Amino acid sequence: xxTKTLKLTQVGNSTGxxxxxxxxxxxxxxxxxxxxxxxxxxxxELTPYDPDFASQMEVAERVMREDRDVLRLLxx
Length: 76
Hints:
Layout: E1 8-11, E2 14-17, H1 21-27, E3 36-40, E4 43-47, H2 51-66, H3 68-75
Antiparallel strand pairs: 1-2, 3-4
């Protein structure tokens, strides 16, 4: 990816950054979507992927797999 520079701008009492359309397209996000900010050894990463939610889903899937018979009985 080519290096991009982004200008910080005032948004109310906060500071924001405008993401160009090509970056939004690469992230597959649009206005109103939520990005996670992850601190990595290489710097800051913006991603539409929420690692906390993914971890919770992994736990839920494991519980559903392990207790599928119990869940099936509860659904009846």
